[in-house]
Amino acid sequence: MPPVHQKQVEEQVEEQAEQQAVQQAWPGGPIDTSLLTRYEHHVARHVWFGQERVEGDKIELRIVSLGRKLADRIPDHHPQVIQGWLNISGLCWLERTSLKFTDPQLISAFVERWHPETSSFHMPFGEMTITLDDVACLLHLPVRGQFYTPVSVSQEQAAELAVELLGEEYEFALRETVAQRGGYFSQQWLYESYNRNANLYGKYDCAARAWMLMLVGSTILADKSYTRVDAKWLLLFSDLSAVHTYSWASIALVCLYDNLNDASMFSTRALAGYATLLQCWIHEYFPTLGRRAQSDLNCDNPGFPRAMRWMYKQGKTKLPDYRPILDALTPDDVIWRPFETHRGSIPFDLITLYSGHLRGSTVVPYLPERCIRQFGFVQYIPPPPPLAPAYSDIDSDWIGYHASVDRILQPTRPVTYASETVPDYMSWYYRVSHPRLCRPVDGPHGAPPVPHYAPAPAPAPDAPVDDAPADDAPQETALQRERRWRGMARGALETFLTRIDADRDDEDFEELFFALDVCRGAYP
């Protein structure tokens, strides 16, 4: 064999061996393993080989919605002073946002695409996530405010907190924490404490604390027991006039991210956290998935959270059937900005574009630059997720959120169509992720490799351009031209007003917001 040809063959063999080694390391997974570093233990790796996490005769996650139980506990009306504290806390709508049941098949299908490294769902067309803006619109929880990271308490410490903040006797409270085997109260015990203090003893502050702790423990802070609440959260309600100063949207999102992180691992069999939040998010962004029933409420009128738009409807599709359905999704199946009609209730807040880490029950990355299309901007290749800094640095970054917003918006621009990406985004994404969950049918040489992104072939130089109008195509009408111009002006105005963090109530920007409303069609 000629030396030159032999060298070429050796190089090809080495290259094939290297590719095979990488492929054997993560079959069905990312080719470039630098991003999804926990893929070895991820449920998607096992699903690729037909391995299911089984509990009894079920392969879907165990998910419990506490909506029906909570609805049974909500009184016709609270005492006026308690209702006042509840209203200013920012938590009052949690009494009415919970679905009575959730669909574990649909939710499990999305959990299999969640990755802790990026805090996002890895879909066939890129990443998506639940943002702070989504939480604000769905639940009407306050976004701005301080973070709170609780410290776990013992049985005795929980009993002491119950004496100080709930007005209970120490021995009585200690019996409860001993029964719960730790620093916990059962939801039923908190409900009974609320009733005693509100209706018998007139200890309205203690009753309000018991009710709010039970409320968050039944919704945004639900754990896998589905019956108890961690006493470490009680200190959030020590000063009832300051409850609203916390970023409750961040607290809710950290808890949900943390539970999704846990549930995405193959060894986990249940999903804790607020399943209603996840399912309503799916309904808003993916109108073709699941069975959706809508309530009679017009939730875009000021006052109603968008989660109240949805009602439970029993689904028939099973988890194995959802996997190929999600594999086949395209960007056109997504409503990329579902809450634009809800801005009368929840105006867009620039702080929801903060990029860094959120802290609550733990610390999680919050990286909207990875899902920037959900904010109306062109998706670009994001930088690697940053390492978690110290708590004090997280707080400083949160307070100075403008710096991170400027950093993630600088490489992009408003989209010209909803799912727009930079040209090389999808080829990069197919290297670092697993765009599909279902393994193709094996061929004679085993399973095929992970699919590579294949862009449409470029047309020949003399080929007609597909997007060019035909010679006999009708001319653009004046109305079509006006709509196109309005769309361009709307994108430019939204970008400018977002960058300067303009307030609609500021008289200096009154004309600009009027022009934006005209572009949106508010004035036909």
TrEMBL record:
It comes from the Eukaryota. This is Uncharacterized protein.
